[in-house]
Amino acid sequence: MSGERIRKIGNDYVGDGFPVFVIAEIGINHNGSVELAKKMIDGAIFAGCNAVKFQKRTPELCVPRDQWEIERDTPWGRMSYIEYRHKMEFTEEQFGEIVDYCKQRKFVWTASCWDVESVDFISKFEPVFYKVASASITDDELLLKYKAAGKPIMISTGMSTMEEIENAVELIGEENLLIAHSTSSYPCRNEELNLLAIKTLRDKYPDVPIGYSGHEVGLAPTWAAVVLGASFVERHITLDRAMWGTDQAASVEVIGFMRLVSNIRDIEKSFGDGVKKVYESEIAVRNKLRKVNNISLPQN
Length: 300
Hints:
By secondary structure, the protein is α/β, with parallel strands linked by helices. The chain is built from eleven helices and 13 strands.
């Protein structure tokens, strides 16, 4: 649908006039466990989401060399940071098991790749779209690698200037692009969510679906993002916010995700078409309360 603010992802259309596309970001909340990842996929399906998202890194490329040997406490005991990063990455066999599980459940998945090798890794499993993390928006080599895959590309814009966003859009092109407003702090204070930037991006890129990737603690700002025109939303999902992991505190548990999605659907129903009218359900009240009741409703 060239020239329109619409993109096709799998069997869904994302953009103005279509239901909000809801992504549950599993990210690294699985803590290296395939079984936990599967439970989060089940939770996302149960909540009514449209897709789940993972993250993929090549630790030696993404972790600065001077941080490799720094020791830290982990669920597997005390170890070097580079060892920990490897523990958090799925092998090809493990990720294949997760992809097969999504196929069995007929559910869309994607991943944000943090380096060129990771794009090659994820491409083997043929995702229907790719996600660019906010941290990667200035990595021109990586953006060109994504572009070469020829799939829809969703970029997050946390910790980015408008100039950096413009450069990324120019490099990728608008044809297959979706842009998510975001603020990269975990969890993010409401004062720094800057939701009106959704309107700014919608005005600047009238042919690109604009969404919202949120890291706040509550749900209300995500609902507000939908009201402001976000055609897709992304929130981190977890089974328990008290679980070990840096992203858990900014995540939403499954029951919370159910509320998030259910209320998004209610908001969509409430938009209407913007044409002021008298509804048939108002006629009895009108006849009771108005002195002048002459009105003709359009005939179906």
